[in-house]
Amino acid sequence: MSTEIRIEPYRGRWLDQVLTILTSSLTADPMSRSAFIRKALLDPNVHPNGLPVALRNGTPVGVALAVPPGGAQPSGDRVPGYITMLGVAPDARFQGAGSALLAACEAYLRDCGCSHCQISPYPGGYLTPGVDIRAYAGGMEFLKRRGYGRAGQAISMECDLTGLTEPHWLGDRVQALEAAGIVLEPYRPEWIPPLLEFLGATFSADWQRYARQTAERIELGDSPERLIVARLGDEVVGMSHFDGERFGPIGVSLDHRGRGLGHALMYRTLLAMRSSGYHTAWFLWSGDSTAQRLYDGAGFRVRRRFAIMHKELNLDRAG
Length: 319
What we know:
There is one protein chain. The protein is α+β, with helices and mostly antiparallel strands. The chain folds into two domains: 5-153 and 306-316, 3-Layer(aba) Sandwich (Aminopeptidase); 165-298, Aminopeptidase. The protein has nine helices and 13 strands. The protein has helices at 15-25, 33-41, 97-111, 137-145, 170-179, 192-202, 205-219, 261-275, 288-295, and strands spanning 5-9, 52-56, 59-67, 80-88, 116-119, 131-132, 149-160, 182-186, 227-232, 235-243, 246-252, 280-286, 301-312. Strands 1, 2, 3, 4, 5, 6, 7, 12 and 13 form a nine-stranded mixed β-sheet that branches. Strand 2 (52-56) and strand 3 (59-67) form a beta hairpin. Helix 6 (192-202) runs antiparallel to helix 7 (205-219). It is elongated. The two termini are 30 Å apart. The model has no long low-confidence stretch (mean pLDDT 91).
């Protein structure tokens, strides 16, 4: 039987087949129908040419997702592109599908003006922050052979909430913050404008998206404790958030770090998660230094380690 691989842009009729491919290939990252639709089909930065499908005899056997950055990029600046997923059905591996999908993604990103490609810290919504070093060791080697190098790393952590207790020093720290005028409280609509201003000035646009979506869910009936705001007068200086068992994002203004505000926000949110009936808290992305400073003391332990892979696209224009 012929094993010739052809690449075509995604078509809606392939939805179920593509989901089967992702389930069988990305075994450490189950992809629900809803998650694929939200991350691959409803993202305004995704174009069908950035969602190539590998066909063998007309049947989908692989799929990938490449996304350029959203919004206008300043002239002359280096522009990143992102590959956030790539999967090939187990019975179609070593037949060129993975290489063809990767090449199609890189060509699309170059056409979009991207100077380099990263796998996979796309700020608009990644599946994972990089390549799981243990779960996808073969994928790491595949990328290295095609010119990708390791540009960084990230860790995913989780915490058992059933035994979580508030540390003895936290009360004094919260009192010190309150004496300085910093108050922690659940979401209120009055804080939407300064919250979005704080997030826009300090973090990526993805954080504003989380805050907006969470505020919408709270207005529709979710608990206001899902979004904790730290305010100083009319200014928001910190935020912590959870969504089900997923903890974060959590962030503090640069001017107010080193005062224990991050710890206060974290424990307030973790305790709210436990009160909501959750037994575990987890998040996908942190660095080792942040883990040691903030998360280790609350009982978080490393679940997974990811390599953030990088390749200069302009080096391949001729080939």
